[in-house]
Amino acid sequence: MFISWSNFMCNEDIKIKKTSRICELYFKPEDIIKEDAFLQEDGSIIYVQRKNPKLKEGAIPTIFP
């Protein structure tokens, strides 16, 4: 995954490390998980907003504002 990100973010001014972070603006909205769903005993689903959004597996930055 790191190699894929590095290839998309290649820029001589930016040094990418494994501990680097990236803003969610670089990802498509459908690549970001902003809420979790919980199935209740009665069959209803409760959606809870995440404090920290999470990237879906395999998400790669593709938007460069």
Automatic annotation (TrEMBL):
Domain THAP-type: 4-64
Keywords: DNA-binding, Metal-binding, Zinc, Zinc-finger
Superkingdom to which the source organism belongs: Eukaryota
Molecular function in Gene Ontology: DNA binding; zinc ion binding
One Pfam family from the record: THAP
Stated name of the protein: THAP-type domain-containing protein
Taxonomic lineage: Eukaryota, Metazoa, Ecdysozoa, Arthropoda, Hexapoda
